[in-house]
Design brief:
- This protein is mainly alpha-helical.
- The chain has a domain of 89 residues: Orthogonal Bundle (Arc Repressor Mutant, subunit A), CATH 1.10.10.
- It is 61% helix and 0% strand.
- It has five helices and no strands.
- It is elongated, with a radius of gyration of 20 Å.
Length: 128
């Protein structure tokens, strides 16, 4: 979508101008190490303030537009946008400092390598 001009009167749900559903730029989903915003929220969402957490949840989990959230919360669309961007930045900062999602991914990758080895060992054990 970068470099394209969109008609502001023809915005589809989820096309909120200036807001990406993911941050970073490493993997296909845009997160460093492949972590999605929802996964970051699962790990660190409790550390967000009430308003930021609610905005994040409504946008990313309930798939509401910025305008819908603004109307629901009685604030401006810009206020929702700012809260969402701050929440996403905080989640990314928590991951950068704590690295829990990255550690989880490393652990899962190690399990993927271990699982076939264990299966081969079990097959050899059955043959004996």
């Amino acid at each position: 979508m970068a470099g394209t001009i969109r008609d502001p009167m023809n915005i589809q749900p989820g096309w909120d101008i200036g807001v990406q559903r993911s941050i970073g730029a490493a993997d296909g989903d845009g997160q460093p190490g492949g972590a999605s915003m929802s996964l970051l929220y699962d790990y660190y969402g409790g550390l967000l303030g009430e308003r930021q957490g609610r905005v994040f949840s409504l946008y990313h989990e309930d798939d509401l537009s910025l305008s819908e959230i603004a109307e629901l919360m009685g604030v401006t669309r810009q206020g929702v946008h700012d809260a969402l961007k701050r929440a996403e930045a905080r989640l990314a900062a928590y991951e950068e400092k704590l690295g829990l999602v990255g550690k989880r991914e490393a652990w899962l990758a190690a399990l993927d390598r271990i699982d076939p080895a264990v299966a081969r060992m079990l097959e050899k054990e059955v043959d004996i």
